[in-house]
Design brief:
about 70 residues, mainly alpha, about 0% strand
């Protein structure tokens, strides 16, 4: 009869302890800061500058979400 001893634990789905919690909060805050900064900087551009970049003013928040969150 074959026997396998697997001592490696599966990767945790939930961050471990408070350290993992604070790390996930830090990442979320950093992403939010990227989103806010991107929206602010794109709103400062003129319509002509946005057109040169291929961005419509109505899609600024979508572009910022892509930059910050990847969607």
């Amino acid at each position: 009869m074959a026997f396998v001893n697997n001592t490696r634990a599966a990767a945790p789905v939930i961050p471990e302890g408070l350290g993992g919690f604070f790390k996930s909060v830090k990442v979320a805050l950093e992403r939010r800061a990227v989103f806010a900064r991107t929206v602010r900087e794109l709103n400062e551009l003129t319509d002509r500058e946005l057109a040169d970049l291929g961005i419509a003013r109505v899609s600024i928040r979508d572009v910022a979400a892509q930059a910050a969150y990847g969607y």
